[in-house]
Design goal:
CATH superfamily of the largest domain: Glycoside hydrolase, family 3, N-terminal domain
Number of helices: 18
Strand order of the largest sheet: 12-29-28-27-13-14
Radius of gyration: 30 Å
CATH class of the largest domain: Alpha Beta
CATH architecture of the largest domain: Alpha-Beta Barrel
Largest sheet: 6 strands, mixed
Structural class: alpha+beta
Strand content: 25-35%
Oligomer: single chain
Helix content: 10-25%
InterPro entries: BXL (IPR044993), CBM6 (IPR005084), Cellulose-bd_IV (IPR006584), Fn3-like (IPR026891), Galactose-bd-like_sf (IPR008979), GH (IPR017853), Glyco_hydro_3_C (IPR002772), Glyco_hydro_3_C_sf (IPR036881)
Family: Belongs to the glycosyl hydrolase 3 family.
Shape: globular
Protein name: Exo-alpha-(1->6)-L-arabinopyranosidase
Pfam families: CBM_6 (PF03422), Fn3-like (PF14310), Glyco_hydro_3 (PF00933), Glyco_hydro_3_C (PF01915)
GO molecular function: alpha-L-arabinofuranosidase activity; beta-glucosidase activity; carbohydrate binding; xylan 1,4-beta-xylosidase activity
Length: about 1000
């Protein structure tokens, strides 16, 4: 679920009583009804209950908060409990004084999803999903109104671009790996019962959601090959294997059509399974259709389109079902919907509710799970195991593992003493920080150091007084009145990159934040950590040019950041500090006095220690997050400087990077002897890091994304065409800092004797075996990775594609034959000439190794497939089925169906290897919204090639109003690459040459 509002909700238009559970006597009175009889077939039970509901009751159930039906003994059901890497949060419609406030669960917090992905261990993820499902059931048993069993997890959007603000939520940039891991996690949440569900996992966010900038207005351009070969395969496995029970629609548009009203939900996603799915909108998605997207004129039109597209539950208007009910009624009255459309959606909803055991007299096989299951010792042990297995050893020149007999270890850095949670995290039942974990592991030694941040005092140039914070958990409004600087006037400064910092008051250990939403708000030290939808704890110091600084408020206020009248801090006459100036010229000036230098203290500790561990990384609510993409993957400037200073003081320095995305660690890779990466890994972070640093756990985590050397290696974040822009490990031709699949070990592994069939048909299973030997002195785990590459094809093919993998544990000197397999059909790709999958007759390289660049064994495989024939453009051809393009957008042909090419002057699309038999005419279905004419030129061999004909496109007055145009052709005979070149704005749907 996603929010773009203040984190409190209100019940409006729906009485709280409507959500209440039915009285026991009412439920007992309905016990004999057929829908409550578990001996009957599910279809009959659903039909019986559906037939008992009135039309108003059915319509009311289309909203996220499905009200109780007391006359049938039916309680409230709501979709949406967040459970991405542990049970996280839900909304409480009964809470006071703010009904609908977010309720965060205290539950086991596992590593972020990107960290779970780095384990490359589906069995482990299934165990994690099982714990998450059990703990959700436990909380549900205590409060079913808050903790609904429809869980919105996992996120399976591909990590195509590491700058995505929600990178932490996905598993990998590879669709196969993502599909395997998401299926495992969802299967654990769902449970193994053949008919009943422990919870109902919902995959987020279908489809192609990998940017936050203007996320509800941008369109992800997916040419057919990218859509079918890259984005869809990430979602399909969990649905196809009946591990997930539905999908959530993404905010974005795909090829010009909002996913909130995209027929793919019905026509594609439901085609992957014979089980019934419950599909939901993302929060506010229906309102976007008539708001930011302006796609439909009324909610009635938008909601009707959403329902017809295969979405069953409307997550919109907080807890207020009124607008949805009104819109659906209006759509029915206008003939945009029929009651059968409503019935279909309610049947989908009921299928999940029945399978969750709601209407069974005993509540089903999972009803006995209670709160006793939450935070069990075995769950704590699993959290530690997973966090350890997720750690990736990026570099090691012999500095690791550390000896437990070291006399002194300096542990320094801004993340050394803190564990941060993210937006989709629960509340940790306990916390083991990196320092605490290392101290517990270091037998008889001493751990020194600190957070390595500057402690400062700020003195107002106007009043002469020092800025003072308050004591106690709620702190106090900041004032600039103190004559001297004691603890109450001291602040610790944490730098998060690009000038953004947070201020933690020494007076109470709380962070300074904006006090309210007013244009001239005061500031108060009361935040336990920077967090919430609007992150009001962010500041920046700017040099005023006279030895003083001004302070800019850098917090998030709206989806486009703070857009209020004032951005800078000022000091009122009484000394109160407020948000009082729109620019630096009117801002208050402060003298920044350094009480203690964090770097100096860190250097002193490191210089006298046997080893130094520098813990750096990100703050999940600041360094990119939901609604905010990163503009750089660089380590924060202050943190990079800290690493360099500590390394200069002690060459035996280990850098621990704790963040949620690839980072450009080029200097560190060149100079620091050992680098370890982990995601924000939950309650057991410190123990897990210590286990790895001291060798109790031999690291075997592997990267699930390409780590690029520089920001310049990345395309525009809105460019989704990984084929043309040559990105992700599949197509990237540059030199990565760390490649996909990379990760080191404290031991070494030899791969030998790769064996595979020499020739197979397209329906066969490809079976591969390789011998893996632990040639080192300690036990360890190797992640054996199998890739393929098709040597020759009609179409551009990936450099490598992951086909199978296995995480294998071996004692020193032991050898094991690892067997991997995949269907030969997986070697196919989408043939745009015939709009179907094709396995070509081709030779494939099969490569096995420890990463996508560390490939140690290879063989070849011949596949007896087919040859793609020359294009036949005499048949109606979709313009979007091009082979190459320049300057075009992909758009919707109509609001309901079809995809077209939108072009402007100078743009072109090409259709390779067309067999032309001397066609006489070019015919095209086109639209032009603008006044005047444009043309489509038919050229052969290139965009500047021989002109065969020109069609004139008249103004049609609307982007969805199409006409057919024709042009005579000359000299179009033989095998040619056909180019359609545009001289003005238009849309091209289909065309023929005959």
């Amino acid at each position: 679920m996603s929010f773009s509002r203040r984190m409190f909700l209100t019940v409006s238009g729906v009485a709280a009583a409507a959500f209440a559970a039915p009285a026991t006597s009412a439920a007992a009175g309905q016990a004999a009804l057929p829908f409550r009889d578990p001996r009957l077939p599910l279809e009959r039970r659903i039909a019986d209950l559906l037939g008992r509901l009135t039309l108003p009751e059915k319509i009311s159930w289309l909203h996220q908060y499905q009200p109780a039906v007391p006359r049938l003994g039916i309680a409230l059901f709501k979709t949406g409990t967040e459970a991405l890497h542990g049970l996280a949060w839900s909304t409480d419609i009964t809470s006071t004084p703010e009904p609908g406030a977010v309720r965060t669960a205290t539950a086991t917090v596992f590593p972020q999803a990107v960290g779970l992905g780095s384990t490359w261990d589906p069995d482990l993820l299934r165990r994690v999903g099982t714990v998450v499902g059990e703990e959700l059931r436990g909380h549900h048993s205590a409060n079913p109104v808050v903790w609904g069993l429809n869980a919105w997890a996992p996120v399976v959007n591909l990590l195509r671009d590491p700058r995505w603000g929600r990178n932490e939520e996905g598993y990998a940039e590879d669709p196969y790996l993502t599909g395997v891991l998401s299926t495992a996690y969802a299967r654990g949440m769902r449970g193994d019962h053949p008919h009943h569900l422990r919870t109902a996992p919902t995959l987020k966010h279908y489809l192609a959601n990998n940017n936050e900038i203007r996320r509800d207005r941008t369109s992800s351009n997916l040419r057919p090959r990218v859509k079918h070969e890259y984005d869809e395969p990430a979602f399909r496995p969990a649905i196809e294997n009946n591990a997930a029970t539905g999908v959530m629609a993404a905010y974005n548009l795909v090829n010009g059509r909002p996913m909130t009203a995209h027929a793919d939900h019905d026509e594609v996603v439901r085609s992957w399974t014979d089980q019934t799915l419950l599909n939901v909108t993302d929060a506010g998605g229906p309102n976007n259709l008539v708001g930011s997207q302006a796609y439909y004129a009324t909610r009635a039109q938008g909601d009707a389109a959403t329902l017809r597209a295969g979405l069953d539950s409307f997550t919109v208007d907080n807890t207020d079902a009124g607008p949805t009910v009104e819109a659906i009624n209006a759509a029915l009255a206008a003939g945009l919907l029929t009651e059968s459309d409503v019935d279909t959606a309610v049947e989908h909803i009921l299928s999940i509710r029945f399978r969750l055991g709601e209407f069974d007299p005993d509540g089903g096989p999972y009803a006995g799970i209670t709160m006793d299951v939450v935070d069990r010792p075995e769950h704590r042990a699993l959290a530690r195991e997973v966090a350890g297995k997720a750690v990736v050893l990026l570099k090691n020149d012999g500095a690791l593992p550390l000896s437990a007999g070291l006399g002194e270890v300096a542990v320094v850095g801004p993340l050394a003493d803190t564990l941060y949670t993210d937006w989709y995290s629960g509340r940790m039942p306990y916390q083991v920080t990196p320092r605490a974990g290392i101290a517990a592991r270091l037998a008889g030694g001493t751990v020194t150091g600190g957070e390595a941040v500057d402690r400062i005092a700020l003195r107002s140039a106007d009043t002469g007084g020092y800025v003072t914070a308050g004591a106690g958990e709620q702190g106090a409004e900041l004032t600039a009145t103190a004559p001297d600087a004691g603890d109450a006037e001291h602040f610790d400064v944490f730098g998060w990159g690009q000038g953004v910092l947070t201020l933690r008051a020494v007076a109470n250990g709380r962070y300074v934040e904006r006090a309210d939403f007013g244009a001239t708000s005061a500031f108060v030290n009361r935040a336990p950590q920077p967090r919430d939808w609007f992150v009001h704890q962010q500041f920046a110091f700017e040099d005023a040019g006279d030895g003083t600084v001004v302070v800019r408020y850098a917090g998030y206020e709206t989806v486009n950041d703070w857009e209020g009248p004032n951005n800078y801090l000022t000091v009122e006459a009484g000394g109160r500090i407020v948000l009082g100036s729109p620019d630096s010229a009117g801002a208050a000036r402060f003298t920044r006095e350094v009480v203690t230098s964090g770097t100096d203290l860190a250097v002193a500790a490191a210089a006298r220690a046997d080893a130094a561990v520098v813990v750096v990384g990100s703050m999940p609510f600041i360094n990119g997050r939901e609604d905010h993409d990163r503009t750089t993957t660089a380590l924060a400037e202050t943190q990079s400087a800290l690493v360099r200073a500590v390394h200069a003081a002690n060459p035996n320095t280990v850098v621990v990077v704790e963040n949620s995305y690839p980072t450009t660690l080029t200097w560190e890779q060149e100079h620091v002897p050992a680098i370890v990466w982990t995601s924000h890994a939950g309650q057991e972070t410190g123990n897990a890091l210590a286990d790895v640093l001291f060798g109790a756990v031999n690291p075997a985590g592997r990267l699930t994304q390409t780590w690029y050397r520089r920001d310049e290696d990345l395309p525009d974040i809105l460019d989704y065409d990984i084929i043309k822009n040559a990105h992700t490990y599949q197509y990237f031709t540059g030199e990565a800092l760390y490649p996909f699949g990379h990760g080191l070990s404290y031991t070494a592994f030899r791969h030998a004797r790769l064996r595979a069939e020499s020739t197979v048909g397209p329906q066969a299973t490809v079976r591969v075996s390789v011998e893996v030997t632990n040639t080192g002195d300690v036990a360890g785990e190797e992640v054996v990775q199998l890739y393929s590459h098709q040597r020759v094809s009609r179409d551009p093919m990936p450099r490598l594609t992951l086909r199978a993998f296995a995480r294998v544990a071996l004692e020193p000197g032991r050898r094991r034959t690892v067997r991997l397999e995949f269907p030969a059909a997986a070697l196919g790709h989408w043939d745009v000439t015939r709009r179907r999958w094709v396995v070509e007759d081709a030779t494939h390289d099969l490569l096995v190794g420890a990463s996508s660049t560390d490939l140690r064994q290879r063989t070849t495989l011949r596949v007896r497939g087919e040859t793609i024939p020359p294009r036949d453009l005499s048949r109606s051809t979709r313009a979007i089925d091009f082979d190459d393009y320049a300057g075009v957008d992909l758009v919707d042909t109509s609001k309901e169906r079809g995809e077209a090419v939108a072009a402007s002057a100078g743009a072109w699309v090409s259709f390779a290897d067309a067999a032309l038999d001397g066609p006489r005419a070019f015919t095209a279905r086109v639209a032009r919204e603008q006044a005047g004419e444009a043309t489509v030129e038919v050229r052969l061999g290139g965009p500047d090639g021989r002109l065969a004909g020109t069609a004139t496109v008249p103004a049609t007055g609307d982007r969805y109003t199409y006409v057919t145009v024709t042009a005579g052709l000359r000299g179009a005979r033989g095998r040619h690459d056909v180019y359609l070149v545009f001289t003005g704005d238009l849309r091209l749907d289909t065309f023929t040459l005959r």
